[in-house]
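In this supplementary section we document a worked example of the pipeline. Step one takes a protein sequence of length 233 as its only input; no multiple sequence alignment statistics are reported here. Step two produces a three-dimensional model, which step three serialises into structure tokens for compact storage. The input and output of this example are shown verbatim.
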Amino acid sequence: MSRKTRITFGLGALFTWLSFQPGGDPYAGSRKQMVDEQIRARGIDHAPTLEAMERVPRHRFVPADQQRFAYADRPLPIGYGQTISQPYIVAYMTQIIDPKPHYKVLEIGTGSGYQAAILAEIVDKVYTIEIVPELGRSASRLLNELYDNVSVKIADGYHGWEEAGPFDAIVVTAAAGTIPPPLIEQLKEGGKMIIPVGSPYLTQQLMLVEKRSRRYTTRSLMPVRFVPFRRSE
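The serialised model returned by step three reads:
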């Protein structure tokens, strides 16, 4: 199992352990309602995604003053001009890459770590990159507390994570003006990438990129609004 099962002392560790116990999480009902009404009802039927969304304590991935809204049908601010995506969008992007248990997945834009946590419930290994140091450090602490199959790096995600690639799938959670060539290069043959493409702060297109025979194809899936793809330059 990818999720850590060891129990350590301290209030945070105790709460984490209780969050994963049946009947031990006060948010379990809200999480199930989120999955049933916001995700399954909108056509998401990938069983591993649904199971992951029902297990991961989303309220732990938002600031304290936003926890009462954690399972609402909308994105939430997490500080530094960034957001945690609407639950349906997280589920949709996860389903579309069709993650398998043996997969190695790269995420660009760790944010609070929620998308990485969903992926960690399903795949063998998750690599995730965050350009905002404060968010990267916070997400790394929480993800390392909950999982042993997630690696976090604070860097410019445009360049990907070459030494860890190639990847079975890549999930980009910020809107890029164009698809970064290094990410296409680091995608395995037959791999999929999901990425919002378009102008910052305007409606963008969520694109599916598939790599076959050393070439790639793109397909527009839906209009979306994501925060801009930040660069270090």
